[in-house]
Amino acid sequence: LEPAARAALRWLDEHGDPDHDGYVEFARKASRGLSNQGWKDSGDSLQFPDGSYADAPIALVEVQGYAYEARLAGVALLERLGDAAGALAQRAKAAALRAKFNRDFWLDGDRFLAQALDAHKRAVPAVTSNAGHCLWSGILEEDKAQAVARRLVAPDMCSGWGVRTLSSGYPSYNPLSYHNGSVWPHDTAIVVAGLKRCRRDAEAARRQRFRPATTIAVS
Questions:
Q1: Is the pLDDT of residue 177 over 70?
Q2: Which of 65, 64, 59 is CA-nearest to residue 119?
Q3: Helix (H), strand (E) at residue 132
Q4: CA-to-CA distance for 166 and 94, rounded, in angstroms?
Q5: For the chain, what is the radius of gyration of the CA atoms?
Q6: What is the pTM assigned to this prediction?
Q7: Which residue among 53, 60, 144, 160 is the one 20 to 30 A from 116 at the CA level?
């Protein structure tokens, strides 16, 4: 599998980063393709507060965490293979990504991470569960990680059934939507893994317990 692993690392630099700004981005090329190509792939899952949509190419917050973790995994693999120069290069790229990410995606006012950067490098300031994936990947600096962890278990994000995909205080919030406020078990599981990584064991264990089933009368 070594050739495939090396090809994946090259993809991060080449096809994954078309404008060479250090971030993995997506943009629809097919006329009928998905407009959003993250795990939240519904057409309305990436909105500014005024309801406008982000222009592609788009760098999603969680994807940068995945790329960071992939580069560190590449370091471990290349070291085992005896490729010291390759490992050193991947370590440097991971460190550069982490520093740039913590600067560009951070929202000082919200003490949280932007959902994405659009084609104009504007931050989409939606408070989403996506940021919790960055706790899991380890890309966040410690103080920022703790701030994100606190917000993810706040009432606007933690529903009692799991972590909301979007804050209940955001204009496009809808608890019955596909990705704008609904709860996804796999998403919550990744957030919980991130909380554990941040040593927030109590929040990880207590806040995500499922509530007892309730009966809803439908007339």
A1: yes
A2: 59
A3: helix 130-137
A4: 28
A5: 18
A6: 0.91
A7: 160
